[in-house]
Amino acid sequence: MACLPPLMTSSTAICSADCDDRLPYRSLRYDRWNGCDEKNTKSTRSKYQRRRRSLVLGSASSASASASASASASPRSHIYQQVLKAARQKFTQEISFQSKDKDVSLAKALLYIAAEDEAFMAFNRETDAFSIHNERKGVSGSSTSQDLAWNTVEGMSLAGKNIHEWQAELDAIAKEVEAELISKDIGCHLAQVLEAVNVVLFESRGFRRSPVLGDAKNSYLHLVLSSGSGIAIMLSIIYIEVCRRLSLTIVGSRVGEEFLIWPQTGYPEELFKVTSGHSLFAIVNGRCVEDPRSKASDLTSNSLSGLEIATNRDIIGIALANLVRLHWKHASRSTHGLMLTSPLRHVHNAHDKLYKITDSKAPLLRPQELRLAIMASERLLILQPHNWASRRDHGMMLYYNREYGKAVQELSICMAFAPEEEAEVLEPFVEKLHLLRLESSWKSLEHSSQLKVS
User: Fold this and answer.
1) Which of 64, 190, 217, 219 has the greatest number of C-beta atoms within 10 Å?
2) Beta strands at 250-255 and 258-263: parallel, antiparallel or unpaired
3) Any alpha helices (H) in 98-231, and if so which ranges?
4) d(CA 301, CA 258)
């Protein structure tokens, strides 16, 4: 199995410190931009907690709010809206910190992510089809589209199968591995089981690492299971899930810009013993273990023991960070070189027209892809609420989406968690963004007054 490519920038890297409740709150900065005189930590924490709850309860519905009016008469659109909300709630329940990490299902969490994104895109398609139908007929009657055969997130069709059926697909792969072991009269030795997993996944099933990182089809679990082609993190997740069904625990950790996996064992030196030309570590991770350019080639049993094992929530976070990056890349494709943090670097340059904070000169972005990036970012914040870099990126995407009020709020919260030097970079941008928010409100009021006068 191939090593994982760099899926996250340093701004979204997993760090246990990001989830430390003891991080200091700079409540003065937070309250300054929300018109509140409270400056104590308790007030800031309360506002932050209310904002986190809104990510769970309100964000999924906001994804379709802009189109809900035009599609309100379509029965299918109502179902998609319900699935949007239900998928977010199911995801939140699955990764809840009230449950033990070992009880968090990677497969279920990723399938709920896929269901929410698919429902959002289906909602947009239904909105467009319903609008075209009404324009052609010249009436506001109901759409001629057929009723859906499902009305719940569990029953939603994802590439021809529902969530339970995709989980059953992983069960089927595990049974194929068992059959491979039986057919060759192989025992349950660790190396033999891993060899059988590799045979089924990469030979019988033909799973392969996709060279195209920018294709969304390679980043959603159900599509990777369907096509057999996926990015390395998705193949690793499938490997972990299949082995879990065989009562074999596979763990992993970030090593440089790679994510390596190996079977959990109390004797790590066994992983590096070479038999039949390969070590167990190489069987699981593939060629990168022998590539001198990779940090994986420098690992030994001693250094492996010192690595921090990624939790299931960490792995889900890696997958979500990849989706944020993927959809942002698609959203900004028409504006070459545009980065999420570009305006922060140029906020002091009044002559920089591309990144000047203004409502009329915002870069052209693809709205659906931008919303998908925002949705992935929302889930990442539910998973890692104290990750200041993820919150900064989320606030910047809201800025690009011209949701200035929400952007001010998120970036202000970010300053409460960010290192001092990062907060100092954000502060002048938030100041100007706050003014832009007020300017937009004034323009809206002025436009409303003109309509009333006319």
Assistant:
1) 219
2) antiparallel
3) 106-137, 163-183, 190-198, 221-227
4) 18
Length reported for the chain = 454
CB 1, CB 236: distance < 8 Å: yes
Q: Whole-angstrom Cα distance, residue 156 to residue 162? A: 5
Q: How far apart are CA 389 and CA 17, in angstroms?
A: 12
Integer angstrom CA distances of residue 401 from 91, 282, 330: 24, 45, 14
* Residue where the block lists tokens 């952007």: 407
Give me the amino acid identity at 382. I
Q: Is the backbone of residue 141 left (phi > 0), alpha (psi -120 to 50) or beta?
A: beta
Of 122, 70, 62, 126, which Cα lies nearest the Cα of 401? 62
- The backbone torsions φ and ψ at residue 29, rounded to the nearest 5 degrees and listed phi first, read -65, -40
Query: Scanning the structure block, which residue is given the tokens 């970010």?
Result: 414
181: which 2 tokens?
């072991």
pLDDT in tens, 200-224: 999 999 999 887 778 899 999 999 9
Phi-psi region of 256 (alpha: psi -120 to 50; beta: other; left: phi over 0): left
For 193, 247, 277, the CA distances from 180, given in Å and listed in that order, are 9, 16, 21
- Decide which of 401 and 142 is more confident: 401
Q: Please answer whether residues 396 and 343 qualify as being in contact, where contact means their C-beta atoms are separated by less than 8 angstroms.
A: yes
| Structure confidence by residue, pLDDT tens digits, 338-354 | 888 888 876 555 444 44
Of residues 322, 323, 256, 266, the one with CA closest to residue 288: 256
Q: Report how far residue 363's alpha carbon sits from residue 326's, in angstroms, rounded to the nearest whole number.
A: 18
| Greatest distance between any 2 Cα atoms in the chain | 86
- Residue type at 275 in one-letter notation: T
d(CA 175, CA 8) in angstroms, rounded, equals 34
Helix 367-383 × helix 312-331 angle, to 10° = 160
Tokens of 130: 């319903």
Point out which residues pair with 209 in neighbouring strands. 230
Query: Quick check: 329 pLDDT over 90?
Result: yes
Structure confidence by residue, pLDDT tens digits, 31-72: 333 333 344 444 544 555 555 555 554 555 465 454 444 444
